[in-house]
Amino acid sequence: MQSGELAALGTATCWTFSSLAFEAGARRIGSLSLNLARVLLAFAWLTLLALATRGMPLPTDATPAQWAWLGGSGVVGIVLGDLCTFRAYVEIGARRTMVLATSTPIFTAALAWIALGEAPTALELGGMAVIVGGVMLAVSDRAPTPGAIVPRASITGVMLGLGGALGQAGGLLLSRQGMAGYAAVPATQIRMVAGIAGFVIVLVAAGWMRRFAGAVRDGRAMAYTAFGALLGPCLGIALSLYAVSHAKAGIAASLMSLSPILIIPLVLARGERVGVAGVIGAALAVGGVVLLALA
Do 15 and 256 form a contact (C-beta atoms < 8 A)? Predict the structure, then answer.
């Protein structure tokens, strides 16, 4: 397995743990406030990381073209993609949204094939298909909490869920263009700058800034968010950018989609149920990783 594919697995691991931290934070301050807080804190972590690894705290050496590609990637992937995903949670529920999110590797591979000419081999295509199928099966197995109100499926919700997946795919490919000859950490900083600007605009338009000001005074929520920001938007996205610049985009996206599989032992540890389909889905996903390793 190549370094880019290992970085993609590292991304999935980081996102697994960060999702639990963000879940805890969002329950206290809401998803809109959490989104802005996480990109602000991620930028702070990235600045420290850039200073330690490059001796430069800010990406002042990036070219205008790199700012354009990576900034566009931040808007498409971090802002638009996440806004669609979080709204889909409301419209159709988290479980259905997660199932739709498994289409991200499919969109990524298709766009990379069209835009970059990255045609996967038959073995790579098989591995990607097995991973996506396994993740979809595992995610669909998660039953709602007894007594919970599950939103009805709607065309709007489905389109938002697919829009979130397409945003993530588009963000990955745009970042790949901006990563040419540039390091992952400062590239991620540029994406965060675009994310901060985008979420500030959204919160101002929604009249949410006063609530955000109150949210940052919740010490426990900020602790959860800071930990999640270190693992997710900081280390996770930096690894994801390295992955898409050192591996085929579709393969990297497939490996990064393994978070719902990696989270199974953690949710079991806190007493959640995982059924037979979840176990079978996890086994299929692991089999898909093996196929990619052999490709």
Answer: yes
Domain that holds residue 203: 3-294
Structure tokens at 195: 């994310």
pLDDT in tens, 44-60: 999 999 999 999 999 99
Which pTM value belongs to this model? 0.82
CA distances 154 to 91, 98, 151, 161, Å, are 7, 15, 9, 11
CA 191 to chain centre: 13
61-107 pLDDT, tens digit per residue, is: 999 999 999 999 999 999 999 888 878 877 876 667 777 887 888 88
- Residue (of 26, 95, 45) closest to 235 by Cα position: 45
Helix H, strand E, coil C: the string for 82-127 is HHHHHHHHHHHCHHHHHHHHCCHHHHHHHHHHHHHCCCCCHHHHHH
User: How many domains, in total, are found in the chain?
Assistant: 1
